[in-house]
Write a structure and sequence with these properties.
Elements lengths: L2 E5 L8 H7 L4 E4 L2 H7 L6 E4 L6 H6 L5 E3 L8 H11 L4 E5 L7 H16 L3 E5 L3 E5 L6 E3 L5 E19 L3 E6 L9 E10 L2 E13 L3 H16 L5
Parallel strand pairs: 1-2, 1-5, 2-3, 3-4, 5-6
Antiparallel strand pairs: 6-7, 7-12, 8-11, 9-10, 9-11, 9-12
Organism: Notoacmeibacter marinus
Protein name: Thiamine diphosphokinase
Keywords: ATP-binding, Kinase, Nucleotide-binding, Transferase
């Protein structure tokens, strides 16, 4: 399966995990996403966009990268241009770096929804800023994620979820109906690998890789200390 790294203009932390994920992948940078590629030591095979978010100095610094310039007045974002070009070049899997945050909420939301649509069309897609990772969920399949114990995760609901089951989590679910916009599936905690299934709807698993809760034994001790403090036990 051909996997491409796409560099967009949202937020990015150059974590060791992200650096290992992009290593060796063919890449396309969209507009200011070229700076993220540079930070991670990646030379894209194409730099695409209208270049309204880069400076003449950037253009000079990256002059050896193949460029495809588009007009500012166009009916697609630079991110969409990068998606389409990667697929045209044979990508069947996308790692989208710089997909979250940034100055434009509308762009970030559109990229998230586009990723869900691509995933439904059979293009395996993952969104990341280096610390948060977004995984569109497949319907009618077992979605399994190798998460460490204590990892914080949420399921964002973009359309009513039917028969949602979550196992391997502190708060498991079994064949639940979750309406669009519900907060019920936010801020869960992995107890190890997490498996998610659903029969209908659109959802995105958002994993916060750098937020790890204490191990179970540590939590038990903390709870015992808190209970003792509330009851006044151990007071001199």
């Amino acid at each position: 399966m051909t996997r491409y790294a796409l560099f967009l203009g949202g937020d990015m932390d150059a974590t060791p995990r992200l650096m290992s994920q992009v290593a060796g992948l063919p890449a396309i940078a969209a507009d200011s996403g070229m700076k993220h590629a540079e930070t991670l030591g990646v030379t894209p095979e194409l730099w695409i966009g209208d270049f309204d978010s880069v400076t003449p100095g950037d253009m000079e610094r990256f002059r050896d990268v193949a460029m495809e310039r588009h007009p500012v007045d166009k009916d697609m974002t630079d991110g969409d241009l990068a998606f389409r070009e990667a697929i045209r070049r044979g990508a069947r899997s996308l790692l989208v770096v710089g997909a979250f945050g940034g100055a434009r909420l509308d762009h970030a939301m559109q990229i998230t929804m586009a990723a869900i649509g691509l995933h439904e069309a059979g293009i395996d897609t993952m969104l990341t800023d280096g610390r948060q990772e977004g995984h569109p969920l497949r319907i009618g399949e077992e979605n399994r994620f190798e998460l460490s114990e204590g990892t914080l995760f949420s399921i964002l609901v973009f359309a009513d979820l039917k028969d949602l089951s979550v196992s391997g989590a502190r708060w498991p679910l079994a064949d639940e109906a979750i309406p669009f916009g519900s907060s019920r599936t936010l801020s869960n905690v992995a107890e190890g690998p997490v498996t998610i299934t659903l029969s209908a709807g659109r959802g995105l698993l958002l994993v916060t890789q750098d937020v790890i809760e204490p191990a179970s034994t540590d939590r038990m001790v903390a709870e015992m200390i808190a209970d003792a403090a509330e009851s006044g036990e151990g007071a001199g």
